[in-house]
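Researcher: Sequence of SCP-2 sterol transfer family protein follows. Predict its structure.
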Amino acid sequence: MSLKFLSEDWFTKVAELKAAAGDLEVPAAMHDLVINITVNGTDFGDVDICLNAGMIEKGHHDSAPTKMILPVDLAHRLFIDNDQSAGMQGFMSGQIKIEGDMSKLMAMQTVQPSADQKALQKQILEITAA
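Model: Prediction complete. Tokens:
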């Protein structure tokens, strides 16, 4: 199954995978981390997502202290391909815009996901169209 990144069907399948995964044993430093993200340039217009405890959710979270704005190709590299270098390259080239508390993004860079989170990330990669 190959679903378009950030499509309604993709969000539905990701939610199913997350529910089936159960407790992901999120590292303490990531547990309370909430970052709103607006992805632009998608086939669906701008898409609002939230990185909540290391997991992508549809929509923005009211209490997020930080907002990131970036293009869809970069979002795919960061959140699906797990390309850590893409974040720094995107920021340095001006493709990533940050509003609010930038220290939250720095915290995100130093935390390693749990084995359960990595397994779920692999499942999400497998269902996501390139």
